[in-house]
Design brief:
Layout lengths: L3 H8 L8 H32 L8
Helix pairs in contact: 1-2
């Protein structure tokens, strides 16, 4: 996980200023979105393996 200091440096590059509370909330939101995206990707890969009709099954 990125530290608050690292997040602050990234967020404030454009000259805007954020409170520590805002930075923590943004960091948490982005980590949650990343987790949702990763879980969606894993589900898609699992479903792709099951439904690939061109690959013969050796079970």
């Amino acid at each position: 996980m990125l530290s608050i200091r690292q997040c602050k440096a990234i967020l404030e590059k454009n000259g805007r200023v954020y409170s520590e509370t805002q930075i923590k909330a943004l960091r948490e939101l982005l980590y949650q979105l990343g987790e949702i995206d990763y879980n969606h990707f894993k589900d898609m890969m699992k479903n792709a393996e099951k439904s690939h009709h061109l690959q013969p099954s050796f079970n």
